[in-house]
Amino acid sequence: MTRHRTPWKTGAVQLPPFDHDVWELYDTNNDWSQARDLAQEQPEKLKELQRLWLIEATKYNVLPLDDRFAERANATLAGRPQLAKGKRQLLFGGMGRLSEGSIIDYKNASHAITAELEVPAKGADGVIVAVGGSIGGWALYAKAGQLRYAYNFFGLTNTIVEGQAIPPGLHQVRVEFAYDGNGIAKGGGLSLYLDGNKVGEGRIDQTEPFVFTADETLDIGFESGSCVSTDYSSNRFNGEVNWVQIDVGEDANDLDHFLNHQERLKIAMALH
């Protein structure tokens, strides 16, 4: 056995090359507490077991070894396949409990979230779309009729950007995030739109680069689990959320890329 890293030491930890790791050898039939290291006494046995480990690691595609920690939670940064690919994803009202691995990766990049709403006569209220929960995430929602966006950074800070009131009827709301760039976990400017018109703006100073949480999810028209922010009074939208679209990169600041509602219905019918 060898201990390449101490599991509870996270963050920017400087790790040695794998070739510098010190291997230990224990007779667990007689030394179950692993108190006596036999590596120096039985070097040939140690080499035999090291070779066996390498054979099994090759057999089961363990190699190459990856000693990164938090980065491995993000498929893009880790360089592994992911369920949802591309720069655009269309989701529909009522969808929920979607893990972060089942939506396209928009972190560390400029992106936009667009939603089509049917607002009741009494005005909009509640969660339109949310990702994550109390320990990190974001939510696009309405409070007392007003469009709002909240970004929760690891439960440490909660930034709220306010827009304008959403009138009753069919409307399109959108949040655009312009990423600062030059690395991961940077901040950026945020703008809120109502039917293509800017109605609010603010700034997110720092973003979470890898994953918000292992068990909180993306929900449309409601929020399951813990709430991203204590600012909204209801975790369920009081009207209808017809669809939500996520755009990453160039599409995130191009309103002309929107498909109208009829085109979206055609796409949905074709998929079924």
Describe this structure in words.
The protein has three helices and eleven strands. It is mostly beta strands. The radius of gyration is 24 Å and the shape is elongated. The mean pLDDT is 88.
Give a brief description.
The N and C termini lie far apart (52 Å). The model has no long low-confidence stretch (mean pLDDT 88).
Strand content: 25-35%
C-alpha Rg, in Å? 24 Å
Instruction: Give the biggest beta sheet.
Output: 6 strands, antiparallel
The total beta strand count reads: 11
Helicity level, as a percent range?
Answer: 10-25%
Shape: elongated
Query: CA-to-CA gap between the ends?
Result: 52 Å
The order of strands across the largest sheet is 1-11-2-7-8-9
Order of helices and strands: HHEEEEEEEEEEEH
Features:
mainly beta, 6-stranded antiparallel sheet, 272 residues, 5-stranded antiparallel sheet
Topology:
Layout (H helix, E strand, L loop, with lengths): L42 H17 L15 H4 L9 E5 L18 E9 L6 E8 L2 E8 L2 E8 L3 E9 L3 E11 L8 E7 L2 E8 L13 E3 L19 E9 L12 H11 L1
Antiparallel strand pairs: 1-11, 2-7, 2-11, 3-4, 3-10, 4-5, 5-6, 7-8, 8-9
